Structures are given as structure tokens and as C-alpha cells.
UniProtKB/TrEMBL annotation:
<keyword id="KW-0472">Membrane</keyword>
<dbReference type="GO" id="GO:0020037">
    <property type="term" value="F:heme binding"/>
</dbReference>
<dbReference type="GO" id="GO:0004497">
    <property type="term" value="F:monooxygenase activity"/>
</dbReference>
<dbReference type="InterPro" id="IPR002401">
    <property type="entry name" value="Cyt_P450_E_grp-I"/>
</dbReference>
<protein>
    <submittedName>
        <fullName>TRANSPARENT TESTA 7, CYTOCHROME P450 75B1</fullName>
    </submittedName>
</protein>
<feature type="binding site" description="axial binding residue">
    <location>
        <position position="446"/>
    </location>
    <ligand>
        <name>heme</name>
    </ligand>
</feature>
<comment type="similarity">
    <text>Belongs to the cytochrome P450 family.</text>
</comment>
<keyword id="KW-0349">Heme</keyword>
<dbReference type="InterPro" id="IPR036396">
    <property type="entry name" value="Cyt_P450_sf"/>
</dbReference>
<dbReference type="InterPro" id="IPR017972">
    <property type="entry name" value="Cyt_P450_CS"/>
</dbReference>
<dbReference type="GO" id="GO:0005506">
    <property type="term" value="F:iron ion binding"/>
</dbReference>
<keyword id="KW-0503">Monooxygenase</keyword>
<keyword id="KW-0479">Metal-binding</keyword>
<dbReference type="InterPro" id="IPR001128">
    <property type="entry name" value="Cyt_P450"/>
</dbReference>
<keyword id="KW-0408">Iron</keyword>
<dbReference type="GO" id="GO:0016705">
    <property type="term" value="F:oxidoreductase activity, acting on paired donors, with incorporation or reduction of molecular oxygen"/>
</dbReference>
<keyword id="KW-0560">Oxidoreductase</keyword>
Amino acid sequence: MSYTIALFLVLLGTLCSFIYFFRTLTTNKNDRKLPPGPAPLPIIGNLHMLGKLPHQSLHHLAKKFGPIMSINLGYVPTIVVSSPEAVELFLKVHDIVFAGRPKLQTSDYITFGAKGMAFTQYGSYWRTVRKWCILHLLSASKVESFAPVRKAEMVSLVESVRTMAAKGETLNLSQQVGKVVEVIMSRVIFGRCFDDEIEFRPLIEETMYLAGVFNLSDYVPFLAPLDLQGIKTRLKRIGNGLHAFFEKLIDEHERGSKNIEEQKSYTDFFHVMVSLLNRPMNPNEENPYIIGRENIKAIMVDMVAASFDTTTTSIEWTLSELLRHPRVMAGLQQELETVVGRNRMVEESDLPKLTYLDMVIKESFRLHPVAPLLVPHESTEDITVNGYVIPKMSRILVNTWSMGRDHNVWSDNAEEFIPERFEDSSIDLRGHHFQLIPFGSGRRGCPGMQLGLTNMRLIIAQLVHCFDWELPDAILPNELDMTEKFGITLPRANHLVAKPTFRLVG
Ligand code: HEM
């Protein structure tokens, strides 16, 4: 029976896609000028051209077809943007039209049909949630107020690495960094860390992988019931794990909140939000949004997913590049010695003076943007950009990975890691300089930039200042494996491992 249904679906879909395919060809030729791009196949469009590392395949295709390129992902018209001038048109000049997000199977299972922020449609619910998260978690004053949490976690990080160094052990830096980011962010979001109650990291890593993977069900909807890649099954499993955990936390809060004294002391993001359960999030506005359990769980998933993996991956790549370039590592240690001295750890107040560190981080983001295609945007109406017609509900992929390697922008040495290229340069990371936008730009740009960057700067500075690092098994710096693993973020395919030696005096 299920075989008959599957066969019927495939035949019906094939027929529809041939009709669609020939209509697209004739329409494009006659009266609509889509951006140039490779010819699509029926049903799958250009999906077969993406390979295991789609950002790299799209980079090569854009060299042939240009910085505004049109492809078909299954039935979804998609525009790939790969130059600073083109990105400015999409994320600044016409930002409002491209501030939509596509509807994805991932958000159905993980955030209850996009009740969080990152995959929510542009509009008043998204605006309310974004404002709320900035006010209670991401504003400059909030980020500043978490300094004691960061300080305490830096002390335990250095202590635990020092113990390993004393034993002459090799350290899995990827895991160690992942753990410290998880603990800091859990304390910041939930007011506590969870020890072994929940292994967040594997769940979040899997979420980020599945959110980035090109899911056939999103692009060829008639195949969705067959779940050919097994993605739906995996999404259900992760969604259930995360939601059960947040349910338990909400229940705990509800039991605790009967105690009025305890209620008064709630200051962390999660508890402030749960205190609003079944009440409006924006009581003073025309359209109040009542906060239910699903909203809370979806927003928490978004905060956890958007912060753990991005920050960890950014630190991992920066440390990898430092290990591959002993000259740059020595330059950074020299700066830290001058600013901090050899007899103490780095303090947050040192960070503004670490200008070489900032250049190192920019250079790392240039070559390893954590979200190589940003988070997909979607056009909310038909629009003409640079003379090309972009239909409503087109998916927009901004290839920041490709832009970081553009020889016209970064000169012939674009593939090399040279932080000094940012010396005397006004380029910053805030999304105003379109050649370097690791946090995106415009309305949908990352609201957690300051929180992410502060964690990143502090952890890198601490690890580089307090320890010398050596690659294991006599691996030479230029032999360090730099293979990427594609998802919505782009982590290392293999963990970074190195041997620390404590280098502070005393
Ligand atoms: C180094 C760390 C980080 C990097 C590199 C990063 C990067 C990004 C990028 C590229 C986007 C997509 C922008 C676009 O689509 O145009 C994004 C969106 C987002 N980020 Fe971050 N991020 C980081 C840390 C954080 C942190 C710490 C949080 C919050 C706790 C956060 C919350 C978000 C949210 C909620 C969105 C979706 C915004 C929306 O759709 O309105 N991020 N981030």
C-alpha cells in the first residue's frame, strides 16, 4: 500500500515538475529576466550540483555566472549573492523585501512552526520577540552585567587546562571550548548550568547540521511524506529531547514561583520569561502576544542554538589558524604580554587595548565565516534588483565564504591568513562593510553579536596568554587538517587537539 502511494506521488510529482520545468524555461526566455545561472534538471533543479560543501560549489558556480546567480533548489527559486556590491543591494537598499525567512521542516519540529526568532516570518511577532530578547539578554548593558559569570568561568577554564598541562596531557580544544561556552551561556540564559542533566551540545550540533542541510522535503514538497533522507525522524528525536527538557524547567519554575520571595529574585532571561507565562509579552501595544509554553520553548531553543555553536566554532577556527601560523601566535602573545604582563590572567578591561587580537578575529571570520550562507532570507514580494526579476518567495543565499576569498576585494593573497591586512582599515564587523559580514547585516543581522564577540575575545585571549600550544604527533603547523563540515554553521570536520604548556609566571 505504502509502495503504491509512493509510486503515485513520484509519478504525480514528475508530471508536475515537467510542466513547471518547461513553463519556467519559456517564461524566462520571453518576458522575465532572472539572474543568470546553470540549467536546472526537472524535479531536483540544481540540487545535484551542491555536493558535500555547498558554499564551495556555489563559489565555483558564481565565478562562471556572476555575483547575482539564479539556481533552482527543487521547486524553490533561489538567488545566490556573492559580492559586497550585490549584498548591499539585497541587505541594505532592499532589506525590507528580503527580511523574510523561508518555512523549513526544521523549524516545524524544533520551534513549533517558527515561534522563536531566527526562522520567524518578518512582522510584528518577530519584532516583539527580538525587542524582548535584546532588552533582557543581548543589550550592551546586559552583556556587561554578565562579566562576573565570564570571570568565574575563565578561572575554572585556566585551572583545568593548567592541570592537564602539568600532567603533559594533550587537550581536545574543541570539546574544552564547547564546554566553557555552554556553561557561560547556560548561566547567562538560565541562571545556572546543567552539569550532566542534559548533554546540550550533541543536540545543538545536530540541530545546526539539520538546519543547514539541503532537505529534499523543503524543496520537493511532494517527496516530504517519504522522508528519503531520514531528516524528519532525526528532527522529531531532537525536538522531543529539547522540549522535554524545557518542559521540566518550566514545571520547576512554576512549583518554585509559589514562593513570593523566590519569585522576586528571578533576574535571568529564562525565569523572567516564564514569569510571563499566559500573559502578554508586549502589554502596551495594539497586538498583544500572549506567551504560551510553545513560545517559551521555541525562543529558548533559538537562543541556545544561535549562541552555543556559533561562538564555539568561531573560537575553534581562530585557534586553528593561530596554530597554523606561529608568527601570528607569537605576535598575539607579544601584544598580550605588553598589555597584560606575564603574572596575571586577562581581564575584560584589557580587551579594548588588544588591537592585534581584533585583527586576528576579523581575519579568521573572513576565511571561516561561521554561517557561510548566512541564515536563508526570503523575498516577500516580486522585485527587480540590478535589472533582474526576483520573484516573491525566492530564497536568498548570501555566500559570505565566497566573499572572503574574492581576489578583487582582498588582493591575490586572499587565501592566506594575514591579520595585518586589517591594519589602518576601517572595516568592522557590524554589518556596514559588506565585504566582511560574519554576523549578517540589516534587519535580520545577528542581535547577539556583542555577547558572542565578548565571549570569543575573552576565551581566545585567555588561552593564548596563559598557555603555549603545540600540535600533537609532531604534526607541522602547515599540516594541520582544516577540513570543514557543512551545516547552517561550518565547524571543523575533526576536533582540534593540542598540547598546552602553562606560561604565566607564578
Ligand atoms: C560569534 C558568534 C556569533 C556569530 C558569528 C553569529 C552569526 C549570526 C549570523 C550570520 C546570523 C544570520 C544573519 C542573517 O541572516 O542575515 C545570526 C542570526 C542570529 N543570531 Fe547570531 N551569531 C553569533 C552569536 C549569537 C549569540 C550569542 C546569540 C544570542 C544569544 C545570537 C542570536 C542570533 C539570533 C536570534 C539570530 C536570528 C536573528 C533574526 O532572524 O532576526 N547569535 N547570527
